[in-house]
Specification:
The complex is a heterodimer of chains A (114) and B (115).
Chain A (H helix, E strand, L loop, with lengths): L3 E2 L4 E5 L4 E3 L2 E2 L6 E8 L6 E7 L7 E2 L2 E6 L4 E6 L8 E9 L6 E2 L3 E6 L1
Chain B lengths: L4 E3 L2 E4 L5 E6 L6 E8 L3 E9 L2 E5 L6 E5 L5 E5 L8 E8 L10 E2 L3 E5 L1
Parallel strand pairs in B: 2-11
Antiparallel strand pairs in B: 1-3, 3-8, 4-5, 4-9, 5-6, 7-8, 9-10, 9-11
The chains are: A mainly beta (114), B mainly beta (115).
Chain lengths: 114, 115
């Protein structure tokens, strides 16, 4: 069963607008972490933001925030005031306490239009 | 810059050959992970080492092997290469052995092309 689902294969967003990238997950482990990574066309994988399953507040890192809805098992990434440099693939990933590996979604290709 | 280094950046080789990919983790990190990213399979976890010992195995083929050395750098060996092994291979590191909260920081990757 797929554990991480990113339903948006691609998105076009106007520069300076906010954008929400969807991520839903499935786990029976009460302890888990959710991660978002950015992969520009150059290929590197850049860590953006982390949310723990027991965290009471939504994570924020600069222009990135995570809309964590535990009951709905969703962990959407919100990018405020998008910039041209935000154009990239974005991956949602999960790590369960009972598992060593990161489990990845298929990714969303975000293109920021000037 | 994540602090994780990988060499080489690009590798072109022929079917049947053997290659070695190298990774140096961030200073202080004891865990090293290897991932393969291909167009058809997406990102796949291969193997994890913690302080020199193998901790977990994922979808790693028998033709592939890895190790972590006393100085904590790691090498991924790929042998009897096939066309389907062409992919981007990432190394990542984290501080702890096994916590859901451990963030994995990725190196720039090695792009392997098998001709």
């Amino acid at each position: 069963a797929q554990k991480i689902t990113q339903t948006q294969p691609g998105m076009f967003v106007q520069e300076k607008e906010a954008v929400t990238l969807d991520c839903t997950y499935d786990t029976s482990d009460p302890s888990y972490g959710l991660f978002w990574y950015k992969q520009p066309s150059s290929g590197e994988m850049i860590f953006l933001i982390y949310q723990g399953s027991y965290d009471q507040q939504n994570a924020t890192e600069g222009r990135y925030s995570l809309n964590f809805q535990k009951a709905r098992k969703s962990a959407n990434l919100v990018i405020s005031a998008s910039q041209l440099g935000d154009s990239a693939m974005y991956f949602c990933a999960m790590r369960e306490r009972s598992n060593y590996q990161l489990i990845w979604g298929a990714g969303t290709k975000l293109i920021i239009k000037p | 810059d994540s602090g994780v280094t990988q060499t080489p950046k690009h590798l072109i080789t022929a079917t049947g050959q053997r290659v070695t990919l190298r990774c140096s983790p961030r200073s202080g990190d004891l865990s090293v992970y290897w991932y393969q990213q291909s167009l058809d399979q997406g990102l796949q976890f291969l193997i994890q080492y913690y302080n020199g010992e193998e901790r977990a195995k994922g979808n790693i083929l028998e033709r592939f092997s890895a190790q972590q050395f006393p100085d904590l750098h790691s090498e991924l060996n790929l042998s009897s290469l096939e066309l389907g092994d062409s992919a981007l291979y990432f190394c990542a590191s984290s501080g702890g052995p096994h916590r859901a909260t451990d963030t994995q920081y990725f190196g720039p990757g090695t792009r392997l092309t098998v001709l």
